[in-house]
Amino acid sequence: MQITSLVFVLFLCAVLAAYFLAPKKWQWVVLLAASLAFYCTYDVRHLAFVLFTSFSTWGATMAMARLDAAQKRYLGGEGKALSREDKAAYRAGVKKRKKRIMLLALLANLSILLVFKYFHFALEQVNRVLSIFRAGPLRDPFRFLAPLGLSFYTFQMLGYLLDSYWGNVAAERNPLKTLLFCSFFPQMTQGPISEFGQLSEQLFTGHGFTYRNWSWGSQRLVWGLFKKMVVADAFAPAVQRVFAQYGSYSGASAFLGILLYAVQIYADFSGYMDIMCGLCEIMGIRLTENFDRPYFSKSVAEYWRRWHISLGAWFKRYVYYPIGVSKWNRALGRSARARFGKRFGDMLPASVALVVVWLATGLWHGANWGYAVWGLLNGLFIILGLWLEPVWAACRAKLRVREDSRPWRTFQALRTFLLVAFIKVLPEVGSLRDGMGLWRRVFTGRSLPRGLRQLLPFVDWSSSFTAIHFFVACAGTAAMLAVSLLQRRRPVRSLTEKWPMPLRALLFAGVILLIAVFGVQNTWMGGGFLYAQF
Amino acid sequence: MRSFRRALLSILCVLAILAAATAAVLGLYYTTEYQTYTDSFLRRDLAGSVDFLVLGSSHAENGVVPAILDEELGVNSYNISGWVMPMAAKRLLLEKELARNPIRTVVIEIAYDTLSRSNDEDFCEGDEAVIARLDTMGERLAYMRENLSLNQWADVYSRAMFRGAQVWLKKITGAPGLDRAAKGYFGKEAAPLSLRPEEIGPAFQSEPFSVDTYRPENAAILEEIVRLCREAGAEPVVVTVPVSERFLWVTRGQDEFLGYMRDLCGRLGCPYWDFDLWRGRFDLLDDDTSFRDLTHLSDPGARAFTPVLAACLREAPDPSLFFDSYAEALEHSAYCER
Amino acid sequence: MDELIAILQDIDPDVDYETEENLVDGKVLDSLSILQMIGEICDTFDITIGPKWMRNENFNSARKIWAMIQAIRQEEE
What we know:
Chain A is mainly alpha-helical. In chain A, 74% of the residues lie in helices and 0% in strands. Chain A folds into three domains: 31-205, no CATH class; 209-287 and 437-534, no CATH class; 301-428, no CATH class. Chain A is globular, with a radius of gyration of 26 Å. The model of chain A has no long low-confidence stretch (mean pLDDT 89). Chain C has helices spanning 2-11, 31-45, 62-76. The chains are: A mainly alpha, B alpha/beta, C mainly alpha. Chains in contact: A-B, A-C.
């Protein structure tokens, strides 16, 4: 079921009606039924993987919880009289068993992800090595499509598993509630990746209908549809043309093409988030925010705290900190401090952790070297930012730059936007070489475009229909920028809240008309969600 | 409850505005002739006098000039073809015209891809145009109910509102709309084709098509169309309008299409003329002036082709006037030396 | 507690650690500073801060960090 379709809108109406008509204690059941039905419209066979991940995680968390409960009972009862050493040994034994259970569930679910996402990539690398020795190649026996949302729901469940192992969250006793957490349809296919502690409370508690939730949620939902259908989907064919034909473009056109992709992917991904967060808001459920006006960031590090926030938070919590505070990494830091000084010693453990995080982030996005390089490039800029901060601070002091001045902040934002836009496009063009080819074209494409058609060769000028849609999307981009600027101070919805209802209805209807007239066509011409591929 | 009532009121408010906007836009669209295909009023005015019908898709809409047919054959013809028109729509429009006109001949145009068309792949562009050509909202809703899925309703609505906005723009700017004298023909200027001659050659044949893509339901509708014609006393003739020579070169498998059509029309007992194989086509039609794109005749091309069609209709052509196959035809093409 | 305050002052001397309650959520300390702080705490107090303790609420104020250190010490005994 395509999310930007009339059928999905009707599906949402049915879900909302059922949700609010159901008694509060059964509302979560409505969500579960809707989630499973939604997933089955994609591929019912892949539901087996979702069920496996959900029930294996439930089983593991319940087993660990039982061990904890047994330990508490024992040490509170007959084990009270044990010596300190014996108690420590008992606890260590329980911890060891818990670890085994956790690792089993972790590896089982991680291997599904690894096989589906990375098997072909791994085989490709093996064949490359074999070709050096003039051996092979090994045949690829599998041709399969990954289950929808695999990366997202697997990470979410692994997070829950680890939180449960660490004792940060109590295990959910009801397997069906665990299944709901795993398969909750608004976030299953593209995130956000939520923490069990935060989302479960929202999902399993009943919510009454309130006008405010309805008003704010529906506005956000419609805004998301606008961003996705009117802006992102209109730019999608133009971006594909850029990737396919940049070799014949002028530098200016190639540059605009890169900016176009940056707008497209933001409108696509954040549009999806707005749709789903808006829907959940109507139901009284608060999903984790995934975007915080990322293109206004003043550094690459800040950008990644504002773009796909939940993925960054997941990696920080489950990869960066564990590696950062690990014994071996701290020992590395101590040794570096002794040889090269305090600063070096403080920065090295963080840098090591960042390299791992960014390599993993890159490969999470795609199983190819392009994404790996993309991830490392992001990591490099963040690490360089950390290491060179004293140098930049000295330069700013020398140039008497006022850091809180608007020109300086604007410069920082523009600089960061251009940097992330260029990095973003690298793995998307095709191969790594193609990505670098597009970069090169920006600087080497000398021809000067004469007129709008030459400046924007990626627009389909043969049809006034598609050209009009493109320029409507440009106007939509301006609207998105205006809303983002307004939202620095307060949510736009708190402004429209004060308007009389007919005026709000007029604005709402106007946006819906734009979606209906322009958005529907853009989506028909090939508008799948970009992040659904991950 | 109060919250829910307030929400309901807000929904009704929005729906009322949307309904008003839709009525305003579509109202003008469906009650005027600003779009070149909004010909329901014209057809109603001509009802009772049309004795010759051309029924096809865009190839026929751009390629057959009723005024020339009228002059050559002494008939009162109407070209009811439409771009991307689904087979079901052709049947519907034919039924309407057969019911109110003394039609004696129906030229049914079938192109290489007509029978493979479906809404799922081709969007609803053709359906939207057909809906605009129907007489009442009841007919329009009935057509949508019978032929379109729920998502396609959204597609049709979107296209209709876009076209309707264009109608308003035309009204405001005073732009011309339907040319009644053209009687359904829509001629376009010649335009440079997207393939350059130096790109053509046997090695360039890259686009295979196969009759496996033909949908049985489309063939069934063609049979029904032939039956409807005969029941109304009209003689059905199936034709294929010529495409550009360059296009013939880049598509492999045309002889499969030819074989399929010959079998089908043989079973239906109606003549089939494929004018891509007419021996004079390479001399009469020039890629640079006779076509507006790779597969559609331009106005000069249509005016050159229609008398040929009329001559064949006047007197059934000798089979020797046609090549036997596409393979044979291409041997006589200007590009065959490459 | 004084040793903890000294560690925090070393990382960022401009913060009033007696009153600040939003060190992590308020982005007063970034993730690099947190790693530095954890490394120093582990070395100074001879404890291991495992992943289970890596939650924002444990690091939002000096008081909460001190409470976490006490809890870890008790656990390790």
